[in-house]
Design goal:
Elements: H1 2-25, H2 35-70, H3 73-89
Helix pairs in contact: 1-2, 2-3
């Protein structure tokens, strides 16, 4: 039962992401985002980025012993947690960067 729900949710998220791509790629970066781009960002991109931030934080926590030995804790934290969090919470609604 749980596997079925997971497969359905994964399919829905993937479908929504693929549908939103043309809308998000259509405007040049120097113009204001359209309502469609804002809606796609709010309903599709932000939840995916939030999930990416959570998964990145979990991976970062698991990798801490190895990153300490490698001496790149800051770099791992930036790539796995800080950059996805910035894209999720700081980026303007509908903006690509």
């Amino acid at each position: 039962m749980i596997r079925t729900i997971t497969k359905i949710l994964s399919s829905v998220v993937l479908s929504m992401t693929l549908i939103a791509q043309p809308a998000m790629a259509s405007s040049p970066s120097n113009q204001e985002p359209s309502a469609v781009e804002m809606g796609a960002d709010l309903l599709v991109a932000r939840p995916v980025q939030l999930a990416s931030t959570i998964v990145g934080a979990a991976v970062f926590l698991v990798s801490i012993p190895f990153t300490i030995l490698g001496g790149n804790v800051g770099q791992a934290g930036k790539k796995l947690v800080a950059e996805p969090a910035k894209a999720t919470f700081v980026r303007c609604l509908g903006c690509l960067k």
